[in-house]
Structures are given as structure tokens and as C-alpha cells.
Specification:
There is one protein chain. This protein has a single domain, classed as Beta Barrel (Porin), CATH 2.40.160.20. Strand 5 and strand 6 form a beta hairpin. The protein has 1 helix and 8 strands; from the N terminus they run H-E-E-E-E-E-E-E-E. It has an 8-stranded antiparallel β-barrel with strand order 1-2-3-4-5-6-7-8. It is mainly beta and about 180 residues long. The radius of gyration is 17 Å and the shape is elongated.
Length: about 180
């Protein structure tokens, strides 16, 4: 599974670098040297072993975005994800797991609002062992006007307890 995470992260970086070098006419929701702030709702489906614990994740995030060119923007994202515990696992009633993500990333626009993105950061668990996880999150999306819709795979790694989720984010953003 570690190898798969590395392959996904490398592919995301490769795709992002292709778009940043060839997308001269791309349209960005954040012009060069400008800031945007967005607030989003997150919904996710756990993958791998996490499916034994949870069947759904829901959360909210805030994202600060800074345009470095017409087609590339840096991002900083934080918020809260709640992984809803199944009713009972192996006869044991479990509590929901919370995660506070703190991520930095890059968005590369391919034109007409489509983009690829990659984020890396830390996820702070709020239940049980309260571990800190490495987060790797490649994704794709589309932004128009003040709305951003994205889909990503988010991988949480560390302390021999690795898991992931496929998540969607619907956000409203505005210029600062």
C-alpha cells in the first residue's frame, strides 16, 4: 500500500508539472499576486481497512489560495473531518473519529476552469490514539465564478495505521 501512495503522489506531481509548463492560456480563479478564500463542505467514502470502522466522512474546510501565475496557485487548507463509526464492529461500539487536516498544496489550471491539484500535510486525529498522520492528496476539479467542485484521494499514513478516503469538496470562494 505504501508503494501505491508513492505512485499516486508521483503521478499527481507529474500531471501538475505538465499543466504548469504547457497551459499558457489557462484561466485561473486566482490571478497572479491575488488572494482568494473559500469555505467548503467535504463528503468522503473511506477506503481500505478504514471501511471496517467507518462508512462515511463529512466535514468542512477553509482554503486560502494565492495565484502565482494565470494557471498556477498555491493553497493552504484546514478544517475538520468526521469519520462516522459503524454501529458496532466485532461486537464493540465505537466512537466517531475526527481528523483536523493542515495541508499545503498547488493547483494547476488546464483551461476553462479545470484543474489538477496536489496537497501534502498533517492530519491530527481527535479520538483513540490521537496520532498525527502524513496526508497526501492528489485531486482534480472544476471552478467557475465563485464555486469550486473537486474530487480527490486522501491518504493518511503513520503509526502502522494507514487509511484513506475518496472525497468531494463543494466550496464557495471570494477575493480578498
Amino acid at each position: 500500500m505504501k508503494q501505491l501512495t508513492k505512485v499516486i503522489a508521483a503521478a499527481g506531481i507529474a500531471v501538475a508539472s505538465l499543466f504548469t509548463t504547457s497551459a499558457v492560456k489557462a484561466q485561473s480563479a486566482t490571478p497572479p499576486n491575488a488572494w482568494r478564500f473559500g469555505v467548503g463542505v467535504e463528503a468522503g467514502v473511506p477506503t481500505g481497512d478504514l471501511r471496517n470502522f467507518s462508512h462515511f466522512a463529512l466535514g468542512g474546510t477553509a482554503r486560502l489560495q494565492y495565484g502565482i501565475s494565470n494557471s498556477v496557485a498555491f493553497t493552504a487548507t484546514s478544517g475538520y473531518y468526521n469519520l462516522f463509526a459503524r454501529d458496532a464492529v466485532y461486537g464493540v461500539n465505537l466512537k466517531d473519529q475526527g481528523i483536523v487536516p493542515l495541508k499545503a498544496g498547488i493547483k494547476a489550471y488546464a483551461g476553462s476552469g479545470f484543474y489538477v491539484a496536489g496537497e501534502v500535510g498533517a492530519g491530527f486525529e481527535t479520538q483513540y490514539a490521537k496520532n498525527t498522520k502524513l496526508i497526501l492528496a492528489p485531486g482534480i476539479g472544476y471552478s467557475w465564478s465563485n464555486v469550486d467542485l473537486g474530487v480527490r484521494y486522501e491518504r493518511f499514513s503513520g503509526q502502522n495505521d494507514n487509511y484513506g478516503m475518496v472525497a468531494a469538496r463543494l466550496a464557495y470562494g471570494f477575493k480578498l
